[in-house]
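Good morning,

Attaching, inline, the backbone tokens for the sequence recovery test we're adding to the shared suite. The designed sequence is right after.
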């Protein structure tokens, strides 16, 4: 019987419900908010939804995750092959005081510290099957979330332009640094379903099952999906 691995997500702080937890005046601040620990997430940008296979949607880690000590984890270049690698390329770079200052200034300009949660679906009357851009900023008051559909695909007002500016700054500080390296995997969430094994005319790539536990022993997640979180040597393999 074929077993088909459909997801491995490598950010230890972004573990879904099947197991694992997430781990001042920003216009002049050059470090993270004072109550934020160095290894705590202060900013995350992820893309959710859109017209794509469910296995693709489940396999996408955040586009950017910024920690309090200035480490920025981001998705690196992906090879133009199909099927692509099971694990997306994840890079990490220390953006330093200057980079952190640029990001926090963009966050402040977008007004994220002043909101709790905003959902903007205005573009759904113009664009079909786009994804939502979800930007989460964390300070001593907690999470500030702006969720916008089809960001950058239609005419935008000043607010949406300022959100786009955050992503532009993150792009610049991430990809302009020559010091980026591979992000060390500490914990993986694995979601498995045999329902995705049928690729039609595309011949599947079959690999040995990498986990110690058999598929039938994994905890149920949702629908016909099973889910487990692994770490240590099992995550490295």
């Amino acid at each position: 019987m074929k077993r088909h691995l459909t997801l491995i997500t490598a950010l230890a702080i972004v573990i879904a419900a099947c197991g694992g937890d997430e781990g001042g005046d920003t216009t002049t601040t050059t470090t993270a908010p004072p109550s934020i620990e160095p290894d705590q997430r202060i900013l995350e940008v992820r893309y959710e939804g859109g017209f794509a296979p469910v296995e693709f949607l489940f396999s996408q880690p955040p586009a950017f995750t910024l920690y309090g000590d200035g480490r920025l984890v981001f998705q690196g270049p992906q090879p133009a092959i199909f099927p692509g690698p099971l694990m997306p390329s994840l890079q990490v770079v220390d953006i330093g005081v200057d980079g952190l200052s640029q990001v926090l200034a963009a966050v402040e300009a977008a007004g994220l510290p002043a909101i709790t949660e905003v959902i903007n679906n205005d573009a759904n009357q113009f664009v079909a099957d786009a994804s939502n851009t979800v930007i989460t900023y964390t300070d001593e008051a907690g999470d500030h979330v702006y969720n916008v559909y089809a960001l950058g695909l239609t005419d935008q007002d000043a607010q949406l332009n300022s959100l786009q500016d955050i992503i532009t700054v993150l792009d610049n500080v991430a990809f302009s640094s020559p010091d980026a390296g591979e992000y060390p995997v500490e914990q993986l969430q694995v979601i498995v379903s045999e329902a995705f094994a049928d690729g039609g005319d595309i011949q599947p790539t079959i690999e040995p099952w990498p986990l110690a536990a058999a598929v039938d022993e994994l905890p149920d997640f949702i629908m016909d999906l099973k889910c487990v979180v692994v770490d240590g040597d099992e995550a490295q393999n």
